Each structure stands twice: as structure tokens, then as C-alpha cells.
Amino acid sequence: MRFCFAAAPALVALLATAPAIETRAAGNLASQEPITVTVELGKGSEHAFVPSKLRFETGKLYKLVLSNQSQVPHYFTSHGFSAMIYTRKVQVVQTKDGKPTTLAEFKGAIREVEVYPGQSAEWWFVPVAAGRVTDLRCGIKAADGKSHADHGMTGEIVIE
Questions:
Q1: How far is the C-alpha of 120 from the C-alpha of 58, rounded, in Å?
Q2: Which of 5, 20, 27, 93 has its CA at a distance of 20 to 30 angstroms from the CA of residue 56?
């Protein structure tokens, strides 16, 4: 195949007069409002995730609020889940004067979030792979030496 250099100026002129092409992706995450999902870590003295079954969709921005109103710390741990999402940030949030205030923000790969009694954290993410994981658990050790997961603090996450 041979290129005709004589045609090059005509090709450049044609491209220069062509209408501009929109180059933004259709799923612009910067403009998405997050879908808020709240999970209670512990319910009173019970070791549980409420709800224990979570469902998300790929390509949507979520703000997962992890709220611990119990008297002990809890983990939200799922290595399978963390491998199926893009984490935008995790924020430590505290209520001051009746308003939520962000105290810290973490970015990058997150596999586990620990939330202390009476506190909450926000995990902002976008699911990038579909699947089902059943490794959601709390690995904190209870007074009897068993983990909270051994006491039933486990869950399931489905991404469609």
C-alpha cells in the first residue's frame, strides 16, 4: 500500500473543518450523585450486619455508610468485594453540632474498615465486576475468644 503525499493537505483540511467530537465517557463518575446504602455494624449487643445481604450494580457510584451504634468496635471485611470495586475514598465522619464532619479521608485499595463504637465511616466506590461474595465478616475477637463472625457477623454481597 502506498500513501499519496499530495492528498495529505486535503485530508488535513477536511479534518480541520470536521465538527468537534465529544470525548467524555458516557458514564462520567464526576457528575454522578452517590447512591447511599447504610449498614449497621452490630445491633445492640448482637453481632450482625444489618442488612447482611447487600446488592450493587456495576458502573454506579455508591456511598456505603458503615454505622456502629454498638458498644464494641466492628470490622467490615471482604477481600472478594474489594477486588470487585474501584474505591474512590473512605471517609471518617463524626457528628459535631448536629452536622456530619469529615475528619479524615483515605484513597486507594481498601480491604477492611474498622468502625469504633458510636462512630461511622463512608466508603465511596464504583463496582467494576459482577459476582457474588460470601466472605463479608467481622474479625474482631469477642470476650469468649471467638470472632464476631463466629457469632454470626457475616454477610453476602452481590454485584450485578
A1: 25
A2: 93
Q: Which three cell numbers stand for residue 3?
A: 500513501
93-144 tens-digit pLDDT: 887 888 888 889 998 889 999 999 999 999 999 999 999 999 999 999 998 9
Distance CA 93, CA 32 (A): 21
